[in-house]
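User: Quick one: structure for sequence A, then sequence B.

Assistant: Sequence A:
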Amino acid sequence: MSRYAGRATIEVLTLGPYEWFERWAGTAWRRRGDDYEALKARLRDRLLEVLYREVPQARGRVEVAEVSTPLSTRHFANYARGEIYGLAHAPARFEERP
């Protein structure tokens, strides 16, 4: 498709404990305040540096970088603690029998 020739989308995923975001759990999406936005900006910058280390040709070419947190996942997918990927690694899971 030539409509977006020379363009690509890259997703960078990482893990982070829910506790990093828990203090904003009772707040509304896009209304969580400056501290929350600052945390997301720091995470974005760290993730972009990892991307640039692994894909150096991307440096200077990223037009949009958006960060979603477990609270974003909770808002859109209604997972209690934003746990959209994988299985919970709680002790009860490992005690279950088939």
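Sequence B:
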Amino acid sequence: MAARVNYSGANWTVIIEDLADAVAEKRRAQVALVLGRLLPKGYSRESFAGKKANTLDQARIAELVRFIEAGQKVLKVPGVAFGLVQDGKIVFADGLGTKELRTGDRPDAGTLFMVASNTKAMTTLLLARLVDEHRMTWQTPVTTLLPSFRLGDAETTRSVLVKHLICACTGMPRQDLEWIFEYGNIMPASSLSLLGTMRPTSKFGELFQYSNLMAAAAGYTAAYVLYPQMEPGAAYDRAMQSYVFDPLQMNATTFDFKRALSGDHATAHSPDVDGNPAKALTAINDAVIPLRPAGGAWSSVRDMLK
């Protein structure tokens, strides 16, 4: 059960979702499409077709900073760091607010944030590098690269090609609670074994269904191709360092939580019972370490701009 409230002018729109968890997960993309069409009266989508981007001069950058600061205030976000690129050049890279409410220290372009699911794009880049090196293709069956790869359905297992690991289109459900509730007991290899307990909830290619476990399998498949004798997590870390971070000179980006937390980093915050920002428990972030190809990277604006 969930409730959403939208407000515009004098009008309120209340949406109540009464769905079983399994149905909600399966139909999340379709529900999002419906809710995305609940727009204010008179709304028309702006088109940028044929328009030339304005030059990001100091006046426009200052206006954007003011906009983000106003958004921070409304949404009660403690700290933000962001960068702007125009014509291949960095025209702004800095932070606003605070890294941690207790200290009041401002983040900047070098402050590490946990970049969460942006890690999936980096993992996909690793796959692409291996495709470029002809170590595999996007059409290669995953089972020929990672023999231990198994889903709860044999036909689906056979059908999964490399490109399907990161397309969210295999019919496999999200089922994050399986690995979250195994917090502290799960390792990269055992995280992959969870896939073998899950069966598809839709036909192959029928629906978009987000899957952290499949994205993790993408990273560990690439790691196995490169370093089959290593532990999957260590192999993935080494692969990302060699094939993504080092070539791009992303010198601060890391999967090492201890390293990130011992240096210049932004602390996790979440709303308290009254809706005000408060320092958050980090367990939900720590829980992704065994599945880090899906969301375990720490990075800075300076590195992400690269």
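The longest helix spans residues 58-75. The chain has a mean pLDDT of 92.

User: Thanks, that's what I needed.
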